[in-house]
Amino acid sequence: MPPRLEKSLPIREELGLQRWIWRCERLGWVLLGLFVALALAGLFASGGLWATATRVSDDGQLRVEYERFQRRGAPATLILELAPGLTRVGLDERLVADWTVEALYPQPLRMTSSDGVLWLDLVPGKGPSRLHLALRPDRLGTVDWRILRSGQPPLELSAFVYP
Amino acid sequence: MESVLRAAAIYAFLLVLFRITGRRALSEITTFDFVLLLVIGEATQQALLGDDFSVINAFVVIATLVLIDILLSLFKERSPKVGRFLDGVPLIVVEYGRPLTERLRKARLTEEDILEAARQSQGLERLEQIRFAVLEKNGQISVIPEPGEK
Fold first, then answer.
1. Closest listed residue to residue A100, CA positions, set B105, B22, B51
2. Which of A1, A31, A147, B44 lies deepest, with the highest CB count within 10 Å?
3. Is there a single domain that holds both residue B44 and residue B101?
4. Residue A26 is part of which domain span?
5. Main-chain dihedrals φ then ψ at residue B119, nearest 5 degrees
């Protein structure tokens, strides 16, 4: 093996920095993998185990399926399932302020607003009724809102909206 | 305001991403790498512009990106250590015909890559004909032949 002559090296090496760069690179790969894994798990919205949540009111009359994590400008859905006999449900007006309600199916019989609550009256039927709302979040960060029923405590919901 | 933040966020993310990808990934670019770059560009474009396709939005986004780039280069000049960290440092991978295997492995290079560079740039055939091979900052491999081998 020829002797290593420091003087004849063509470049000034910085092995310490290079090793540090490599370490950062490896750490970066791990973080990248973690990022994708979290995205698959649903932390960054648009599907996944964590992205959707279901809440049921204490008396079991109202069931809400919503997206816990949302992205601003991207469509999100909110599904309300009302037990038979329950025909009136109220949406916090923040829902209208912080989201653009793009569609509401099926159309309720009547929509009235009072005290900052948007009341939806449905046609009474024999089975449970489901309401689908197509939403587009306009605000960023944590947004809290409530689903109300007359004479019952409201169902508090919270969503996080990514930029 | 939002366009500036969007552009800054994308710039930072891409800077980190390409930094951790390592220099090898995109310098000796294959056809597939090229296609991948195009796809990355396409995905980025949507997030950069959002749903605002106005000319002024494009101006703001472009100006922000270029400004950050200028600021970063000024910053690198001020603090060479940071610059060397972001741009990388050259690394000797072959010394007097002897491959430095541990460095090659860490830089995700093989002896074949060195020989390929040696053939292309110097017309050399064997590792022993190489005095030094240096992995440059931009990911290219420079080959310095033993005297008399060229």
1. B51
2. A147
3. no
4. 14-41
5. -65, -45
Place of tokens 């990808």: B21
- The verdict on residue A145 lying in a domain is yes
Burial of B145 per CB tally in 10 Å (0-12, 13-18, 19+): middle
Q: In this complex, how many residue pairs, one in chain A and one in chain B, have their CB atoms less than 8 Å apart?
A: 49
- Mutation test of the interface with chain A: which of B16, B91, B103, B131, choosing the one with the most A Cβ atoms within 10 A? B91
Q: Are residues B135 and B83 in the same domain?
A: no
Confidence of residue B150 (pLDDT cuts 50, 70, 90): low
Number of domains in chain A: 2
Q: Chain B: nearest CA to A80, how far in angstroms? A: 30
Residue A24 token pair? 């950062």
Provide the residue range defining the domain that includes B74: 2-87
Token reading at A91: 């949406």
Q: How far is B66 from chain A (nearest CA, A)?
A: 22
Phi, psi dihedral angles at B143 (to 5 degrees): -120, 125
Give ipTM to 2 decimals.
0.75
For the question of whether the overall pTM of this predicted structure is more than 0.95, the answer is no
Distance CA A27, CA A6 (A): 32
B12 plus B52 within the same structural domain: yes
Domain holding B112: CATH number? 3.30.240.20
- Type of residue at A156: E
Is-contact A92 A105, C-beta < 8 A?
A: no
| Minimal-distance CA residue of chain B relative to A16 | B89
List, for residues A69-96, the tens digit of each pLDDT value.
Answer: 998 888 899 999 988 888 889 998 888 8
> B95 and B83, same structural domain?
no
